[in-house]
Design goal:
Helix content: 40-55%
Strand order of the largest sheet: 1-2-3
Largest sheet: 3 strands, antiparallel
Shape: globular
Number of helices: 2
Structural class: alpha+beta
Number of domains: 1
Bound molecules: zinc ion
């Protein structure tokens, strides 16, 4: 099962979008890179974290994305 890159919730594929059932985030499969950037920028605005903290979380997210991608590709 795919996971939302933002909240980690369940994501369903509704062509041509992937839609998160929890937060409503929707994106095309090929747009994950854009989603990552958008999510990070939104977090920065909302939380106001330090750059170091954001970069640390971004690295964690990248690992999560990698896992997510690999699971998807396995199907
Ligand atoms: Zn979500």
């Amino acid at each position: 099962m795919a996971r939302c890159p933002d909240c980690g919730g369940e994501v369903k594929y509704k062509a041509p979008f992937m839609v998160c059932l929890d937060c409503g985030l929707s994106f095309k499969r090929g747009e994950l890179d854009n989603v990552k950037t958008t999510v990070r920028n939104e977090q920065k605005k909302i939380v106001g974290e330090s750059t170091e903290e954001i970069e640390r979380k971004d690295r964690e997210r990248k690992r999560a994305y990698h896992d997510w991608y690999m699971k998807k590709e396995d199907k």
